[in-house]
Design brief:
The protein is α/β, with parallel strands linked by helices and about 260 residues long. The chain contains 11 helices and 8 strands. α5 crosses α7 and α10 runs parallel beside α11.
């Protein structure tokens, strides 16, 4: 069954104490205020994963999960500063983001590298959140569907069909990330529907129907409900608004 998911990407924010406080607040508010029909994923920095895993505890089996922001393409070895999929799995990570636009842009991550990272995540039994989305120049030139198509084809379409039950796609137009400029519900829906049609064409329609496709890019309580009401938008990957418990939980409630 296609899942509703709201994931909070904290990026490089919060000290450990701040992160633990934020996670505790979110967990309590989700417990008290939501109907638990939405899978909530907390995606703190690597240093906070182990303690926040403890805070989430047994709620994971129900509706609150732990995510990591990236993982190495390598299995193990002399790769100073990298964190492997096996390491993430060993501290209780359920979901891993691969292909966030900030990794693509600031760390020159290309399609081939992202394909390796995706494979590592899936080999270790975790769920993949694969990000795609076009920069402003591509949106303005009008060829954004082709751009997103290449991102998916080059990094994911070699994967076997049975792995797709562990894959979530996040469409995040780069021009909307952290800019306060949100895609309109119609703009987002157009790309989400296109992504689903590509998966249907490459695999099959039933499989494509089950894949959760999240929207990301300046999503906030004021615009979340409209976005989530679209037929092919199954939740959100939230950056800035996930750092405030009130706004993050209001976005989760808008997804119920
Ligand atoms: C993101 O970086 O994944 C994101 C969606 O950020 P923001 O919500 O701050 O635009």
């Amino acid at each position: 069954m296609r899942k509703k998911i709201v994931a909070g990407n904290w990026k490089m924010n919060t000290t450990l104490a701040e992160g633990q406080a934020l996670a505790s607040e979110i967990i309590h508010m989700v417990e008290d205020e939501t109907d638990r029909s939405v899978q909530v994923v907390l995606i703190p920095p690597f240093t906070h994963l182990y303690p926040i895993n403890k805070l989430i505890g047994s709620l994971r089996k129900k509706h609150i999960y732990l995510g990591a922001q990236d993982c190495s393409a390598h299995e193990k070895g002399a790769y100073t500063g990298e964190v492997s999929a096996a390491m993430l799995q060993s501290v209780g990570v359920d979901y891993v983001i691969v292909g966030h636009s900030e990794r693509r842009e600031y760390h020159a991550e290309n399609h081939a590298l992202l394909a390796q990272k995706a494979r590592r995540v899936l080999e270790h039994g975790m769920q993949l959140i694969f990000c795609c989305g076009e920069p402003l120049s591509v949106r303005e030139a009008g060829n954004y569907l082709e751009y997103v198509e290449a991102q998916l084809r080059e990094s994911l379409f070699e994967l076997e069909a049975d792995l797709w039950e562990h894959i979530v796609i996040a469409y995040e137009p780069v021009w909307a990330i952290g800019t306060g400029k949100t895609a309109t519900p119609e703009q987002a829906q157009e790309v989400h529907a296109y992504i689903r049609s590509l998966i249907a064409e490459r695999y099959d329609k039933a499989l494509a129907h089950e894949v959760s496709i999240l929207y990301g890019g300046s999503c906030k309580p004021e615009n979340a409900a409209e976005l989530f009401a679209q037929a092919d938008i199954d939740g959100g990957l939230i950056g800035g608004a996930s750092l405030k418990s009130r706004s993050f939980v209001d976005i989760i409630k808008a997804c119920q």
